[in-house]
Amino acid sequence: MTVRFGLVGCGVMGSDHARILRNDITGAELVAVHDKDWGRAKRVAGDRCRIHADPEQLIADPSVDAIVIASPDATHAPLTLLAIASGKPVLCEKPMASNLDEARAVVAAEVAAGRQLVQIGFMRRFDPGYRAMRATVAEGTLGNPLFLHCVHRNAVGPDYVTSDLVLANSCVHEIDISRYVLGEDHARVRVIRARPSRKAPNRQPLMMILETESGVVVSVEAFLDAQYGYDVQGELVCEEGTLSLDPHPPVRRRLDGSDGHAVEADWVARFADAYRCQLRDFVAALNGGRFLGSSAWDGYVASLTAEAALRALKSGETVAIERGDRPAFYDSFG
Ligand code: ISE
């Protein structure tokens, strides 16, 4: 069955999702878009699909089977709730919600709907490097995991992201992917600030330390003003060996006395395959497969953990992560 998609948000992420749906996914069609900026909506729609003046119309459109939400963070939970109420599957960009009440409301609405409708856009779960790490942990091929060291550097962070927002906007990726790789939840979190770069005096780099229920330590350096490029690193350290992310462009460049690889400019380039696989598998799930991405519960846990990390940052203390019991509804999910 061809899945007819409606897209809310035609910015960086929305336009990339539109490109992938049109060029890379069989069994999917983009039939409607919305953006509060009509010009951006028109640039994505072209003459190929409808433009809705507001997102509610798009979600209610009877010719739209499924929704992709790539609008500003504050709209994610309200629009996801609308999609659930309309009985339409929704792939919502991270973060799922801007506060914990909204996150809990999304979980409650999906449980009440009685079927999985929500997937959250933590695309790193579709990256081959992280999937290999998860398999290594699950199969125990290197012994028990002890550390997961993460580096998350942007060339220049989005202007609206303050030191505090780095946790909810950027570190939320490592919060989710470390749960996925290690196959367990986090128990507590600490966060410390480094001195700011003179290139970005108003945004301090952060070091977040998460400890899982079994005692694995996850370190996350978050530095959004690294200048040289977009650089996400990961090293899984186990009892008998390590596994590191090693993504490289297909060519090695020697120039002006230097020898190495180009560094990607941003996350769209660095995780291009992951974004493609995320949408491909979402379409497969809508055609009778299983959802393989982050559920609404994962989205809630990510938001809850980011909130605990913010409290840890502000207090300088280690903060326990108290997520409550996962509804049994989510036991059968991927
Ligand atoms: C952005 O929203 C993302 O999701 C990127 O993956 C992350 O690296 C970046 O810091 C965020 O602003």
Overall mean confidence score, pLDDT: 96
Catalogue the unreliable spans.
none
Bound molecules: (2R,3S,4s,5R,6S)-2,3,4,5,6-pentahydroxycyclohexanone
Question: Treating each run of at least 4 consecutive H or I residues as one helix, how many helices?
Answer: 10
Structural class designation? alpha/beta
Reported for the largest beta sheet, the result is: 7 strands, mixed
Order of helices and strands: EHEHEHEHEHEHEHEEEEEEEHHHE
Helix content: 25-40%
Number of strands: 15
Structure description:
The model has no long low-confidence stretch (mean pLDDT 96). The chain contains ten helices and 15 strands. Strands 12-11-7-10-9-8-15 form a seven-stranded mixed sheet, covered by helices on one side. Strands 3-2-1-4-5-6 form a six-stranded parallel sheet, with helices on both faces. It is globular and about 55 Å long. With 334 residues, it is α/β, with parallel strands linked by helices. Bound molecules: (2R,3S,4s,5R,6S)-2,3,4,5,6-pentahydroxycyclohexanone (ISE).
